[in-house]
Amino acid sequence: MNPIIANLLTEPVGVSHYVVVGAFMFTCGVLCMATKRNALGILMGIEMVLNGANLNFIAFGSRYLRNDANSLGLDGQLISLFVIVLAAAEAAVALAIVLNFYNNTGSIDVDGADQLRG
Amino acid sequence: MDPSWLPKLLALAWLTPLASFVLILFFGKHMGSHGKGAGLLATTAIVFSAVCSFTALFGVWLPNHPLQDASHHSAQHEEVDSHAGVSVPIRLVAAEAEGYGHAGHATGEHGEHANNAAPKYITADWYELGVFGKLKLTIGYYIDALTVAMFCMVSLIASCVHIYALGYMHDELHDFTDPEVTLTSGENLKRPGRYYRFFQYLSLFCFSMFGIVIAGNIAMVFVFWELVGICSYFLIGFYIERKSASTAANKAFIVNRVGDFGMLIGLMALWSSLGTFSFGDMTNEQGEVTEQGMFSLLRTEENDYHLQPTAGMVFEGDRFPECNCATGGSGDTASAGEASGSGELHAKPPTKNHAGQWLLLVAGVGIFCGCVGKSAQFPLLTWLPDAMEGPTPVSALVHSATMVAAGVYLVGRFFPVLSPEALLVIAYTGCITLFVAATIAITATDIKRVLAYSTISQLGYMMLALGLGGWIAGMFHLITHAFFKSLLFMCSGSVIHGVHTNDMTEMGGLRKKMPITAYTMLVGCLAIIGAGVPLMGIGFSGYYSKDAIIEQAFSFGVSNPRHWILQWAPVAGAFITAFYMFRLWYMTFAGKPRNQERYDHAHESPRVMTAPLVLLAVFALGVGWAFPGTNLKVTNLLEQARPVGTLVTSHGELLPALVIPNEHDAHNFLVPAGLWAFGTAASGLLLATMIYLWDFGLRPEELKRTFKPLHSWLWNKWYFDEIYEWIFIKPTKMFSGWISWIDRNIFDSIIHSSAAICKGGSKVVDAIVDRTLVDGTVNTLARGTWDTGLWLRKIQTGSLRQYVMFIAAGTILLFVAISFVQNI
User: B361-395: b or e for each residue (b if 16 or more CB lie within 10 Å)?
Assistant: First the structure.
């Protein structure tokens, strides 16, 4: 068995585990964006990418997981809050685009939006 | 007033016409209809100049320099003998035996007969134009009695001319139809009047002439000399549409350039040997001499004001071989002063400096060449009669007080630098001129041309007088002549204005129609022939000056028997002058009208024209007189400006036999000269009366037939124009024809073939370099860019998901790359 994975499974929960989960979420989000043809699915992928990143900030900002000297402290949590706010705003704008897109084409299949093809 | 006012007043008189010129130049068109106000402005300016000049004379100069009677001077020279004794002061007697001076004319006892020092003058620079090494060009002034006298004469005559022109030029106040210019359509040229432009040029002309007179150095003279030339060009060509006028203007300008070429040579000779252009010594505030002028360099006090070439004028090897002090640097004038000063002269008399004398001759004759051109002397006399194409006030100004006077004035101003040999050249030129021009005047029928030739002849008189050593006589004649000649010209203008023709054969009997013109002109005629009571000293102005010239000629002729022609030419000239002047007067004003129609239309000119005539007639009559009860007299004023070193008889170095007699000796010939002058003038007058007034059997037409060859010789003006046409113009044209043939056939073909070769070569270069290399590079680059663009186009699919893939893959690649770089 891969020694890194073995370590993860054996040692107590720390930053590494959070980071792994965040990376997993990020990858899932990117794959979701790359594979989904449904515009809403792509929005969900974006949310997942953002939250994967948020998880990292939280983990690095936590004083329980890391000792005080290395911790980002409240900064990490604040940045997460910003990201959440921005994600909300972004979702609102994106949903408006999607609605318009639907009005124009009658579907929300993003493969139909290729007018900018070179 | 203090003498320091002199330069200020004269500068004011000098610059006022310039201000008027500038104002008229910019605003002339808007000064009333066709610039009527411009005439008034210019006239006011010149009258103001005249006021300044006369203030300078009577308010500043005369109170500071009281006049002495010149005749008192001559009393000192009773001992003058007929063997042309040179007068050498006692101080130099020791040098005589050692070869200095002229051993053949040893005199010793004339110790009291000292040479004269420089006249009282003030000189300074106003403005430095530039310094180029040792060459310094400045605007400065040199004011002595001659300057002041000239200022008064020029400004007074110019004022009269301006006032006269106000009336004479009235045709230009409205649209002017030129009767002498016919257009191709058969009509006469019609153009707007140019009244303002006429006065603009007149103002510039006066400014230039004042500039020559006030100039403190010969370079400044040259500048204003050329300005006068260009003004005369503008004014002679005032009716520019007339072919004859534009040709005459060109002729005047080009002929003057010929003379100026010689003048430039003279300037170079002077500057390269003396290192200065200025006339007088520059002094600082303490009165110490800071910079010597050319007069004091050439006529040093140590040398008793005799003309002597400076060290800079001698060949290096000839220059006082044993004396070190003068060997340093040619043109080092300071060392020349040392050499002749401090008793050096007695110890080591200067060797006969022939090289220096030749250089002085070149300089003198060179400067004189310019004067030949300006004063229309032989052989450059042909421009002046043609200059009659200008309006008559211009003729009056140009041919009396300004342009032609400038030449005589410069010879007079330059007198101390002229060596006896140069003076002889001047005398012979003047002699030939006076005779040639006088004879041509006999047959001319154009009233203005008679006066033009008379002007040339009188200028010849002045040059002759100066060349014979008669400085006062020449300058005095310049001033008297200016008055009566401007009077004569303006009278002729008044006649032309009245009868609308220049041709005397269509006039006659006009004295009844225009009495003021007729009798003022009679005064002018009597003045120019020198009418007066012989031996009594009472006469018209010309009487004094002409007698002075003839006295000087007699004095010269006795000293130099081989130059007898210089003695008798002015006498013969007096006869011819009297003849042609009264021929003119009789043909115009006496007898019966020859053209009844013109006679009927003739009328006296308006008062604005006759008033200056009367004023000038008064001056023509009395300018030679002493002011009653005083010794205020033009000759006494001029005596104050007598050039340095001219009170003794001088001898030629190159022509040892040549003697230029002292002017005061001329009074010994008062009786013979006076009788000869009176006799010839009276017989000329009598002959003219017999032929043209009395029906005496001598009819002009018969005489013309009898002397057919002589008449046609004179009628064609000695064939001067034809000779010049054959000698200069035809060969020049032929030569330029050849040159142009060579140009067209040889040079042009060379140029054309080289052009063809260039064209062929550049085609090859075009094919190889431009098309292949340069274009190839650019095209390849363009095609590469195009292809890359086409290829990259495929990446932009427009599919959102693919873009996300690219982003993800790109990010991963970036990380991979960074990890690689960090590991290295």
Answer: bbbbbbbbbbbbbbbbbbebbbbbbbbbbbbbbbb
Q: Rounded CA gap, B682 and B542, in Å?
A: 14
DSSP, collapsed to helix, strand or coil, labels residue B769 as helix
- Per-position b or e across B751-788, b if 16+ CB within 10 A of its CB: eeeeeeeeeeeeeeeeeeeeeeeeeeeeeeeeeeeeee
**A15 has a chain B CB within 8 A of its CB:** no
Question: With 0-12 CB in 10 A as exposed, 13-18 as middle and 19+ as buried, what is B476?
Answer: buried
Please state, rounded to an integer, the average pLDDT across all residues of chain B: 81
Residues B256/B193, Cβ–Cβ less than 8 Å: no
Is pLDDT of B700 > 90? Answer: no
Q: Do B798 and A33 touch (CB under 8 A)?
A: no
Tokens of A73: 């402290």
Q: How many residues does chain A have?
A: 118
Nearest CA in chain B to A31: B805
Q: CA B49 to CA B14: how far, in whole Å?
A: 7
B798 vs A35, A36, A116: nearest CB:
A116
In 3D, which of B392, B394, B509 has the Cα closest to residue B447?
B392
DSSP label of B141: E
Chain B interface includes A92 (CB < 8 A)? no
Per domain, the residue ranges of chain B are 79-113+427-715, 720-793
Tens digits of residue pLDDT in B313-365? 665 555 444 444 443 444 444 444 444 444 444 444 455 567 778 888 888 89
ipTM exceeding the 0.95 mark: no
What's residue B392's pLDDT? 87
* pTM across the whole model: 0.73
Q: What angle do CA B653, B655, B656 make, to 5 degrees?
A: 65
CB atoms within 10 A of CB B136: 18
Chain B residue whose CA is closest to A42: B801
Q: How far is A37 from chain B (nearest CA, A)?
A: 8
Class of the domain covering A3-106: mainly alpha
Is residue B554 within 8 A of residue B567, CB to CB? The reply is yes
Q: In angstroms, rounded to a whole number, what is the distance separating the alpha carbons of residues B535 and B267?
A: 43
Q: Cβ contacts (< 8 Å) between B808 and chain A: which residues?
A: 30, 34
**SS3 of B135, please?**
strand
Q: Given a cut of 60, is residue B74 above it in pLDDT?
A: no
Give, as one character, the DSSP assignment of residue B798.
-
Nearest CA-CA distance, residue A65 and chain B, Å = 27
**Domain boundaries along the sequence of chain A:** 3-106
Residues of chain B contacting A, Cβ within 8 Å: 792-801, 804-805, 808
DSSP letter, residue B325: G
Residue B18's Cβ-side half-sphere holds a number of Cα atoms within 13 Å equal to: 13
Q: How many residues does chain B have?
A: 824
Q: Who among B792, B794, B798 is closest to A114 (CB)?
A: B798
Decide if B798 and A35 are in contact by the 8 Å CB cutoff.
no
Exposed e or buried b for every residue in B719-729, given b needs 16+ CB within 10 A?
Answer: ebeeebeeeee
Determine the pLDDT at residue A92: 94
Taking contacts as CB-CB distances below 8 angstroms, the residues of chain B near A36 are 801
Q: Supply the pLDDT for residue B397.
A: 87
Q: Minimal CA–CA distance to B481: which of B618, B623, B610?
A: B623
**Chain A residues close to B797, C-beta within 8 Å:** 114, 117-118
C-alpha span between B616 and B487 (Å, rounded): 6
Task: Compute the distance between CA of residue B457 and CA of residue B477 in angstroms, rounded to an integer.
Answer: 12
Cross-chain Cβ contact A118/B796 below 8 Å: yes
Distance CA B40, CA B30 (A): 13
* Residue B777 to residue B303: CA distance in whole angstroms: 86
Question: CA-nearest residue of chain A to B797?
Answer: A117
Confidence band for B107, pLDDT divided at 50, 70 and 90? very low
Q: Which of A108, A111, A115 to mutate to test the interface with B (most CBs of B within 10 A)?
A: A111
